[in-house]
Design goal:
By secondary structure, the chain is an alpha+beta fold. Helix content is 37%, strand content 13%. The longest helix has 28 residues. It is found in: Nucleus.
Length: 691
Amino acid sequence: MMGTQGFNGQKNGQRLGITEPISLGGPTEYDVIKTKELEEFLAEAGLYESHEEAIRREEVLGRLDQIVKIWVKKVSRARGLNEQLVQEANAKIFTFGSYRLGVHGPGADIDTLCVGPRHADRDEDFFGELKRMLLEMPDVTELHPVPDAHVPVMRFKLNGVSIDLLYARLSLWVIPDDLDISQDSILQNADDKTVRSLNGCRVTDQILSLVPNIQNFRTTLRCMRFWAKRRGVYSNVAGFLGGINWALLVARICQLYPNALPNMLVSRFFRVYTQWRWPNPVMLCAIEEGSLGLQIWDPRKNPKDKYHLMPIITPAYPSMNSSYNVSSSTLRIMTEEFKRGHNVCEAMVLNNGSWLELFEPYRFFEAYKNYLQIDIVAVCEEDMMNWKGWVESRIRYLVLKIERDTFKLLLCHPHPGDFPDKSNPFHCSYFLGLQRKEGVSVNDAKKFDIRSTVDEFKGNVGSYTAWKPGMGISVTHIKRRDIPAFVFPGGVRPARPARASVEERRNAPDTSAASSLDAGTSVDVNVVDRPGPGPGPGPDDDDTRKRQREDYQELPAPKRLSTDGFNVGLPTEGTNVNDQAGTSGVKTENNEDIISGQLVSGETEKLATDSGQCESFQSSRQQLEELEELDMEFSTIKQVATSVNESLEELEATELVVPLPRAAHATAAAQRKPVIRFNFTSLAKATGNSS
């Protein structure tokens, strides 16, 4: 498992990365011991598949290859090609993602790509004939084609193994068995969907070719993926980072420390990215413009690229930012998690601690006092699957809109997954944690009115072209004590800790500014949802007020959601009945919706811009030398990126543009006026329960 000592940061005579390594030091005896402990920890966590499962996956891939070869010959014959061309017709299966990288776990799906000839059409043949063939096969189950996705995909299970199958249509009449898709010429005359489909395989292969030690890379990446899932920051669709993003970040650390073992690579991962000056891009190699005229990530030419907050650039042509979904809120959360990971690793060295603390799960439902609950319903399994996928892809826009309409005074933390209601298989919930921005006084931002923001979000969700009767959505502001029981393991709400005495609270250390883990910041938020199908208790009811005071009382069963149409409402819970009437949400002065993206804030900015003062780098001369090399890394990146735009060097607040429907633009212009304070009308007043 040990890295090659004396490795000089080159592979096949070429330097890896856009800079020299930070350190060429080899592993110590301590690194060897801790790496072995890490591998044992990952194995005990069940992250490695069995030998039998590995063999079954290989058999399934062989079976899939046979299926697409039969399919392409059938298509060729239907196209009227002569028998010789029919016999020569070929299609080829490639793998990518976690399976190709070698970091997949038990039960994980296999990302696959089918490469076909020019006469095999995507819509008519791949999503038509191949789909019909799969439906007729008894070993194929749960077939779910998604032809309208940004990257069209066919999802199904083959002999119990989950498959995500993409399609790339090349300009070749015959696909050779030794086809090399890493060559840029493969993209010649390819349509956009084919380019995006090929990109996954090309990027995966490039990553493996750009790391100095593949085994050390795989162990480290497996560790970081597990850590990200435990800490709730593994989800591209929610605005965090997905599998390819984490692979690129880990690969860059492997380039900077080519002789390090996974123990050191994990520690340096947190050290480097705690200090990283976003939005400086993470790149494994220089960006090539290519000769095919395809658009690449270049803020000098593409205005939208200027507003990316956490650029992580893919190494294969055409180079793209793989992390464009990251928002100001999710960047802040990930930065805090990097800092926490760095502190844990530092303490592990000092105290010879275990790996357990690093992977401690993030307690999302203990971290905040206020949440937004997004409930969705449907009437059948297929509708629910489609509806969930659409709503989930829109939630990050809600985060951006809340950032915009509260001028970043109200911070959002989206939970990366959904919570199914076991009492109703066609109902599930998503949650966003809400917190007032640190350093903002209560008087400046006591109440937030996001009713118009939520209405805009629901209007965006309602534009779903495949909407069917019965698909419903509800957005509700709830307090921590009102979180439904079905989100907790076993449907049992954890016992609330006993209240501390006055003396204990007085003597307790002040940790309110430590991180977003502080749950002591109360926020008044009003969200108006359209009323549900049946009457429910209003916020002024005695029973409701009594229930809000009884923190230990189990919540009643969730209210039945209507499936009569698109808009389904739940009564707002946890509303402050003392809220005063105020203005509705206010847009910015620009007719377009502007979201200000804070790149680094507070302590993070100080660390990033004055990293020589960081105490963690004062412990030894070797660490100081590594920091100087890290500063050289930033300087080199700036030579690449600073010329692109001044905002990359000065780290000034950027702005993200989120287009709105035309009607929303008109509303924004009509309501444009200076605002100092946000007040919100309670649900009770909004629904007419009080004047």
